[in-house]
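REQUEST FORM: STRUCTURE PREDICTION
Request ID: SP-0412
Submitted by: Lab K.M.
Chain count: 1
Length (residues): 231
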Amino acid sequence: MSKILFVMTGADHWTLADGTKHPTGFWAEEAVAPYEAFKAAGHEVVVATPGGVVPPVDQGSLAAEANGGQENADRIAAVLAAMTELRAAVRLEDVNLDDYAAVFYPGGHGPMEDLAVDADSGKLLTLALESGKPLGVVCHAPAALLAAAKGDGTNTFAGYRVAAFTNAEETQAGFADKAKWLLQDRLTEAGVQVQVGEPWVPNVVVDRNLVTGQNPASSAPLAVELLKKLG
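STATUS: Completed
RESULT:
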C-alpha cells in the first residue's frame, strides 16, 4: 500500500475581475472519483492544503444537475462526509515528497485563487515532476502549474502537453467574461502545450510522469492512468 498526496485548495472564493468574491472551493467529483479509485486499489490518501485548513467544497458541485441527478449527488455528498482525510489536512508547507508514491491535484475554481500563486505548491510540483513519480492534475487545478518555476525563471512545465479546463468550457460555464484571466491562456503563455478536447467530454493527456485531465468528467479516467503508473 502506497500513500498518495492530494494537494487541495484552501480557498472558499474566487476573486473575479470586478472584485466580486465568487463562492467556490474544490469540485466534488474531482476529489471523490480519484479517491474512490485509489482507496479501492489499496492506497492511503493524505490531504494537504495551504496552512492545513480543511478544503472547502464548491457547493455548486454538490447539486443534482452537476452530478447527473439527485441520486449520484447524494452518493458524492456521502463519500465526502465519510472522507476523514479532508478534516485531517496537513500543512502543504510541511509536506515531504519522499513520503508519497504519487501526487494528485483536484480542481474547482479554488486553485485559481490560491494554488496559482502558492510558492510551496510550485516547489512541490517541480520536485514531483523531476522525481518521476506519477503526478495527476485535473480541470482548474493546472492553475497550480503557473506557480512552478525552474531556477532560470521559466515554467517547470513548459514544453509539456497537458489537458486543462478550456476557454470554451469557461465560456459555457458563464465565467469567461468575468474572470481576471483564463487558465488555457495563462498556461499557453507559460509555454505549456494545452491539448484542447471537446467541452465536457473526458480528455486525459499523459506526458512522461504527468497525467492531466480537462474537466470533471476526466477525473475518473485520469485516476485509472495514474494507477497504471503506480503499477
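NOTES: The longest strand covers residues 44-49.
Reviewed by: T.R.
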